[in-house]
Design a protein that fits this description.
CATH superfamily of the largest domain in chain A: Hexapeptide repeat proteins
Number of strands of chain A: 40
Distance between the termini of chain A: 73 Å
Mean pLDDT of chain A: 94
Largest interface: A-B, 80 and 80 residues
Structural class of chain A: alpha/beta
Number of domains of chain A: 3
Oligomer: homotrimer
Strand order of the largest sheet of chain A: 8-11-14-17-20-25-28-31-34-37-39
Low-confidence stretches of chain A: 1-5
Helix content of chain A: 10-25%
Strand content of chain A: 25-35%
Shape of chain A: flat
CATH class of the largest domain in chain A: Mainly Beta
Chain lengths: 358, 358, 358
């Protein structure tokens, strides 16, 4: 397991108080057991080392409560009694949220050492503006008139092109490119290898050849957005490509030019959204799904993994379109038959008429 | 909106003359209205700021002509009368092409400031050959015997490995890798994060393990090719992987080893082409489509988005294979039934015989 | 063709002896013909330049044996007679494996010139540990307490974050990021643009927004693993993401957090494996396939290209789920009918009852 969560132990009481302070007011949590228990790792239930804390949110894993070697369990009220019978526990009205906030506090403890300032090897244009509390890593490139906000962190080999703007407390990881004129909001995380602001895919056809339409827009990313590794978000053709506040994109996602993604929408890995699509707020798009261009999805639409959206969706709900997996020989038979499906329907109709007439 | 198309205003007459000079002879355009109107932005029809020019190619958007605040409209002859009735317009036999050439001229005006030369922080092998008119950005790496042509532009953190060759007027964006021995032609654009010349995926099996086949070929990219961000083009196993002139690849496309892509073929985002496939000229491949290995597609084949090509295609046309999206509960019913499709066909046959005999 | 396999000629005898020494004992090979024939290229059968060696493993290509201009052919015993009748040949019990080992020996001849040591422009933390025989390329960044093993090679712009560990003889290509605490084993090849150790995609939902779960695990990669360009492997949430020995991943593959990939499993390009999936050993996953999260695939499961795995697979075998490609108009008819499939089945049942009763 990673060394990074093996920190100096903290007492369970200190941990509990620190997390509770950061919980939303609507979430209630109670510590049952000694606050002096030392905790030095957050662990999966089934692999908990000594001095660790683990969580069970799903009743499915209830049976592991008795066998886990964790010293403290984070549980829902429904599991509280069983957890208490074995030792210390934190009973929370939303144990998964308690766990999430705990991981944030834990990671923050590890980051204490990071010093602000610009590494001597970074190449910073004299017209760029970098907050004194920001950190710029080795061999980063900061272009003309680029701006880096307070407490922002720009890692090794990242490249901010001219007029790029990075908001406060945003973390740009290694080898990210933020293209000229593009904006990333506050408290964002942009993972390694992301390309923001490459040209959208726009060409006019003339005499069998493609004539480039220069992409004159930019990318505008809101606050609290997370973007996964090697994901690409293209600049708009004339207007901007817009990613709303709180959006979460996983790795290797492709967002075409002029796309708008509504607030708090999440997309899993390998999703492709073609140009000028408008995705609503609070949507989810499963891994490998494709959304064609110029479509509109209203708020609260949920697309299953690997499904293909070929028409606009005007009604919230869950939508799916996946060929079911089968063993290969069964698939071959059904796939061949599928090509006759329309004619099978016609034969069925004919037969229905014959039988009803007969 | 991006600051980059807010340039100092130009007169409509100067704009028109400049674009007309670059239009193919077969395209006709006429300016109707005062050549003195100042233009400082190219804008989308529905969001046009003052002093802007917009275009309408699609009759679908005709209704926006009266309400747009653009100072000049680029229109087809069919829409000329309506456009003239509201103000200045450019009537073009191919308005989309006029618009494309306009965006090129506009972007060229912005690029005036770029100075040629090698940035002091770039690491250039003494045996490399870089044209005096080329530009090499900060922290780029140019390997042994690499060649960079006239007016080529190599951006920050790009890496040209040994014997890589970049043609004249080609733009290699940030953090592109052009592998050893690979060639990129003239007037190409290679967007950020592209990897040209990684090893193809070739292994022999022996005793349940994979034995590497070293990939001894290279990648050969023609002229006027555009390659989208984070796309990968693998080097050939023995011969070369070949991308023809005028090919356009979008972001996150995967081109396997030994693939040949014919001239002026375009592929949208997230397409995967497996090893040794031969794609013809003037083909299009929609986003997320997969082409299996060792297949041949003739010229003028068009594959719909997210379709899977499992056999060679010998006839031009449009080909599709996508499970239609449905609400999830309807999909579940149909997907389950799909596994019985072959037996349904058999039952239908039996029934047909019964009825015809009966 | 690439210049890199046009080396100074070697005699066929020297080549044969060198390869034979590296073959597994179970593979037998015999040289028929003069050992003095000079060989300066390994070539495809149909494009063999003078002084080249080629291989034919597939009886399908037998007809090319007479027409090829290669000076020596590597063939199976079944083709030995025919090959000998035209000139020199190497008869091998496994000609494809002989060819694989030959390419390895050939490539090794080209690498002779590479000097070990750390390039002056690399930025190496004073606490990092780099073996004296390792090579660190220009502008690479090696973080605090990172370790680079004997004969390892770290190319230009690669970034090893704090506590990253690279095993002996491993090749980290340009612009790879190996995240903090992550480990890559021995004799691995990690191609350009790969991101190892970005955060897994983990969020708790609260009041319609996503609350980040910090990813506290790491990535643990075994020995003899190859990872294709721009592939991403996320760090675990609490435990580690684990890639077994001998695994081969192609380009643009996404491996979610906590995934375990068993030994000697291979995945083609554009595959996505969602979080916490467990893939067995000796599996293959075809290009563009998607494996959903929290599933288990036993050993020796083979998923066809572009198929979607939505349930665990407990039995070895070949599994497929792809909508068959058709010309677009035929597809449209069948796709529309597919939405009625469940009701067609019901109608068929009704009809069956009517007929059997009638």
């Amino acid at each position: 397991m990673s060394s990074s969560h093996r920190l100096a132990p903290v007492s369970l009481g200190e941990l509990f108080n620190a997390v509770q302070k950061k919980l939303p007011a609507s979430v209630h949590a109670t510590l049952c057991g000694s606050p002096d228990i030392p905790i030095s790792a957050i662990a999966p239930l089934e692999l908990a080392p000594p001095a660790s804390i683990a969580f069970v949110s799903n009743v499915k894993y209830e049976s592991l409560i008795d066998s886990t070697t964790a010293d403290c369990l984070i549980v829902s009220p429904a599991l509280g009694k069983r957890a208490k019978s074995r030792g210390a526990c934190i009973e929370a009205s939303d144990p998964y949220l308690f766990f999430a906030v705990l991981t944030q506090w834990w990671r923050a403890r590890q980051r204490v050492g990071l010093e602000s300032g610009v590494h001597a090897s970074a190449v910073v244009d004299p017209t760029a503006s970098i907050a004194a509390t920001a950190t710029v890593g080795p061999l980063a490139v900061i272009g003309a008139y680029a701006e880096v906000g307070e407490y922002a962190r720009i890692d090794a080999h990242a490249c901010l092109e001219a007029h790029a703007h990075i908001g406060a407390n945003t973390h740009i990881c290694s080898q990210v490119v933020v293209g000229f004129d593009c904006t990333v909001g506050q408290r964002c995380v942009v993972h390694a290898g992301v390309v923001i602001g490459a040209d959208g895919f726009g060409f006019a056809q003339h005499a069998g050849e493609w004539v480039k339409i220069e992409q004159l827009g930019a990318v505008l990313i809101g606050d609290d957005v997370e973007i996964g590794a090697n994901t690409c978000i293209d600049r708009g053709a004339l207007g901007d490509t817009v990613i709303g506040n709180g959006v979460k994109l996983d790795n290797l996602v492709q967002i075409g030019h002029n796309v708008h993604v509504g607030e708090h929408t999440a997309m899993a890995g390998c999703v492709g959204v073609a140009g000028s699509a408008r995705i609503g707020a609070h949507c989810t798009v499963g891994g490998g799904a494709i959304v064609l261009g110029h479509l509109t999805l209203v708020d609260n639409v949920h697309i299953s993994a690997a499904s293909v959206v070929m028409r606009s969706i005007n009604k919230p709900g869950v939508y799916t379109g996946v060929f079911p997996l089968d063993n290969n020989s069964a698939w071959e038979k059904n796939a061949v038959t599928l090509k006759q499906l329309h004619s099978l329907r016609d034969r069925l109709r004919t037969l229905e008429k014959a039988v009803s007439c007969g």
